[in-house]
Write a structure and sequence with these properties.
The chain is of the alpha+beta class. The protein contains three helices and 25 strands. It is about 15% helix and about 40% strand. The N terminus is likely disordered. Belongs to the type I cytokine receptor family. Type 3 subfamily. This is Interleukin 11 receptor, alpha.
């Protein structure tokens, strides 16, 4: 009995441990009893008695294959994700001695950072992993100006969204250093990039684009818009915007462009009469000419002013010709006739004249035929008279 008590008193439980290159508090990652290891490497652990009582290792409740255990030790070679789970060791009576949860993954790596500057008051930076770690990960984000020692936070508003915001960066410099540090249980790694705020400055597209017809002007269109909502009105006096407008008739592959500074309206003077046009607007900081143009606004379609159609009135016009007295209705208006109506009227007149000429030819042919018939009858009568006279002369008196 004292020997057994001695064995119980000398119980040694050795968990699987890992050395971190940088210390990270484990409680921010997982619950107690969870251990993280390098994926693809060898992991080992020991659970046994000083008096060498036998133990059994189990993985998710099932016995571990014999090839992975030796004299109470557990060895995992070339670890894979299939080996993640709950490991426990038990004595010969099945009593639980120790359990751990194993997670496998990679240490932090560099991230790919991109920043956008929609105005002079905010810088938004986002990032994506270049290598998936398969482990719980957090990020610390900060920035400094011109390699200054003072470091300010880049604020992360939503946990789990890889984006941070720099508010009110200094106006007197354009160079900013951004630091994104990735941290997981296997270590940490920092990615530092330098950005040029002026070169990245790119307003959002103009909003509320409207296109109006100009009364009585079939070649003009009035275009109006609003500054992007992300460019606050309070900074417009100090940081005005310049705008570029492009337009084209539908079906054309060529755009015409106009530009204006500060104004939020432009008039197109050479629109194609009667055609539907496409119009878009974009914006740029008016003071920093090497900044970027915004994306084009959504397409707005519009057609220039068209003269309203007036209902025509009908009048009866008489056209008199020899042998005929014809009359037909002709539509007339107080305005100048449309060219198509004029062409239709001319065509009708040509048809009428053609019909008249055909009738005249038919009449003339009829008269000629009658005259020829009459002439033949007269010739026959004369022949009969001459024959009679010859016969009378041949009779003796």
């Amino acid at each position: 009995m004292p020997g057994l008590v001695s064995c119980l008193g000398d119980l040694i439980v050795t968990g699987i441990l890992i050395l971190f290159s940088d210390h990270v508090q484990s409680e921010i990652w997982t619950n107690e009893g969870t251990f993280c290891f390098y994926l693809g490497q060898r992991a080992s652990g020991h659970c046994g008695w000083v008096c060498r009582s036998p133990v059994e290792w189990r993985f998710n409740g099932s016995s571990v294959p014999a090839g992975q255990t030796h004299k109470g030790s557990l060895t995992l070679l070339n670890t894979t994700h299939s080996m993640e789970g709950n490991y426990s060791c038990h004595d010969e009576r099945g009593t639980l001695l120790q359990s751990i949860k194993l997670r496998l993954g990679h240490p932090p790596h560099f991230v790919r950072v991109s920043c956008r500057v929609p105005n002079h008051m905010n810088i938004y930076c986002s990032w994506v992993q270049t290598k998936t770690t398969h482990l719980p990960t957090i990020y610390t984000t900060s920035y400094s100006v011109n390699k200054a020692r003072e470091v300010d936070p880049c604020k992360q508003e939503d946990i789990g969204v890889n984006e941070c915001m720099i508010t009110n960066p200094p106006f007197w410099t354009s160079k900013v250093l951004v630091n994104i540090t990735e941290i997981n249980p296997l270590g940490s790694n920092s990615t530092i990039i330098q950005i040029d705020v002026h070169e990245l400055l790119k307003p959002d597209p103009p909003e509320d684009v409207r296109v109006l017809q100009v009364e009585g002007q079939p070649t003009q269109l009035l275009v109006q818009w609003s500054c992007p909502s992300s460019w606050p009105a309070k900074i417009l006096p100090a940081f005005p915007l310049t705008f570029s407008l492009r337009y084209r008739p539908i079906g054309s592959s060529y755009w015409s462009t106009l530009e204006t500074e500060e104004n939020t309206s432009l008039k197109i003077m050479d629109a194609l009469v009667g055609h539907l046009h496409q119009i878009q607007i974009r914006a740029q900081d008016a003071l920093i000419n090497h900044s970027q143009w915004s994306e084009w606004s959504h397409v707005v379609e519009a057609r220039p002013w068209i003269q309203p159609w007036e209902e025509p009135t009908e009048e009866l016009l008489d056209f008199s010709f020899p042998f005929f007295n014809l009359s037909f209705p002709v539509r007339t208006t107080d305005k100048s006739p449309d060219s198509s109506l004029h062409q239709n009227g001319s065509l009708g007149l040509m048809i009428l004249l053609g019909l008249f000429a055909a009738v005249m030819v038919a009449v003339l042919l009829t008269i000629i035929a009658l005259l020829r018939v009459r002439q033949r009858k007269q010739d026959n009568v004369k022949k009969q008279e001459l024959t009679s006279m010859v016969k009378m002369k041949s009779i003796p008196i």
